[in-house]
Amino acid sequence: MRNLEKRKRIMKRSIKLGHCICDARKPCPCDLFREKDICLCAGERVESPTGEVKLTHLIEKAGCASKIDQAFLKEVLKGLPVVDDPRVLVGVPAGDDAGIFDIGDGKALVQTVDVFTPSVDDPYTFGQVAAANSVSDIYAMGGIPLTALSVIGFPVRKVPDNALTEILRGGIDKMKEAGVAIIGGHSINDPEIKAGFAVTGVMPINQVTANATARPDDVLILTKPLGTGIIAFASQIGRAFAESVEASAVSMTTLNKEASRLMVEFGAHACTDVTGFSLMGHLSEMALSSGVDVEVVWDDLPVFPHLLQYVADGILPGAIERNKESCGGRVIGGEGLTPEMLDMCFDAQTSGGLLIAIEPGKADTLLKALHEAGVLAAVVIGRVLARGAGKVHVRTTGQRTLPDPRPREKAPKEPAVMPPAAAPAETACCAETLAAASTPAAGTADESGAQQKFMDFMGQVNRPGGLDAYTKQAISIALSVAQRCEPCVASHIAKAREKGFTEQEIDEAAWMGIAFGGAPCMMFYKQHKPQP
């Protein structure tokens, strides 16, 4: 139920300021008020939409592609002071997956936070992906996650309420599977949906598996397929195969728990999880931090079904370019490797696999153990060459090539998603009179086109701009009186009252017109001012 007195009081404040008090970017009355007669500032609520929702259609960049690129992040962080605390074993300068803090007795605290936009359409699945992705940083360090705090951004009343419930439920269920207790969280009203967790774990100090300790001759093992970013983009533009979308979702919701446990058990030298910075971004960071050069065999990279077809079709999201700008200078493509083949390696991953560096004598045994534990996609993708400057050499054996591109589909006659309708302009005061007076009589020219152009012009004039709507309404009253236009006076005074004008303010505006028009205008106003 609307409280009109409350609405009038609040809107009056906004109109005088020339800005909505709930959103300073908007004028008052706002488009929502014009279209639906609802004032959110007065506590009135839009009815929440219902029905199925496809999350990836509501956001600009899907999943970890929404993160700030690696190069920009390093540039911003380099000027900040370094934490000078001997208990910080791994901190910001390391650029690792999580921070490590010595809490004594040979134990360390491991902490991380990860938040991103949806990489899948289903809200429950997105909640699971957000949880699996967030806890993965703990697993990458060899830690055991214990507690988590949820972080949610959600466009309230613009997406069905139950979507938020399902995102949280998915996250809770996945964290329960990981043995993690969610003990709180934080939520904000955000135009784009975002979800993630801040996760805390523990580990023995002597079991920290950092990204900076890879050694020459180490074998590189990747535990999940590549291509989640490309598949999410293909889905956004309606070009994805159902099989690859489903396989990607299953992978993203799978915990790296077993892979982490076995990595620690077999004494891996180094590890990182492959997420938003891409395989090349995370591997080049591992190589640079470890002071080594590495080699990857493109033909051996595990990929999702149909991924090579997407690459051949040019379905390559913008995050690939940002990742190339960040680390492409350290990546060297070998003979026979096409630009598209190399681009695939820069795809931003969401809840990707662990990238493990382990000595050659243990690699086969670890790989076998991973397969027996259900980590079936785990495969050797390359090796550490020798001490070096952090270069990543990508070569191809020629055993795998890209398929032929699919024929381009004809563009639909109408866009799949229609743009939102423009907000209606302020109606000109004499709209009804003009409409009636300009109805073409028999045998006369139809002037409706000219009339509509004039009405559009009046609408633009009346919109808030350099002058706010409240001031323009007062000017309209003054001019109506000065011109002695009876329908104009009636219309503008009615609108002024709707906007919260007092009778004193209406009279003061009218007297501005009288000051210019003299006694005839005063007599006109006294005769024709409509009663409240």
A few lines on this structure:
By secondary structure, the chain is of the alpha+beta class.
- Fraction of residues in H or I helices: 40-55%
Mean pLDDT: 83
Q: How much strand content do the residues show?
A: 15-25%
The helix/strand class is alpha+beta
Number of helices: 19
Strand elements, count: 13
Tally of distinct domains:
2
Q: What is the radius of gyration? A: 31 Å
Cα(first) to Cα(last) distance is 24 Å
Overall outline: elongated
Biggest sheet, strands in spatial order? 8-11-7-12-9-13-10
- Provide the CATH architecture of the largest domain: Alpha-Beta Complex
Low-confidence residue ranges: 410-426, 432-445
The CATH C-level class name of the largest domain: Alpha Beta
| Major pleated sheet | 7 strands, mixed
CATH topology name of the largest domain: Phosphoribosyl-aminoimidazole Synthetase, Chain A, domain 2
Q: Supply the CATH superfamily name of the largest domain.
A: PurM-like C-terminal domain
